[in-house]
Amino acid sequence: MLLGSVADDFTGATDLCSMLVRGGMRTVQLIGTPAAGDPVPDADAVVVAIKSRTAPVRWAVEQSLSALDWLRKAGARQYFFKYCSTFDSTDKGNIGPIADALIQALDCGFSLHCPAFPTNGRTLYLGHLFAGGVLLNESGMENHPLTPMTDPNLVRVLSRQTEGTVGLVPFPIVEAGAPAIRDAMTRLKEQGRRHAIVDAVTDAHLLAIGEAATHHALLCGGSGVAMGLPGNFRRAGLLPDAGNAGDLPMIAGPAAVLSGSCSRATLNQIGFARNHAPVFELDALTTPDAAKLAEAALAWTDGKIGATPVVVAASAPPDKVAALQSALGGPDKAGALLEDAMARIAEGLVARGVRRLAVAGGETSGAVVTRLGVKQLRIGGEIDPGVPWTLASGSGPDLLLALKSGNFGAPDFFLKAFRLLEG
Question: Which residues of 137-150 are buried (b: 16+ CB within 10 A; e: fewer)?
Answer without folding.
Answer: bebbbebbbbbebe
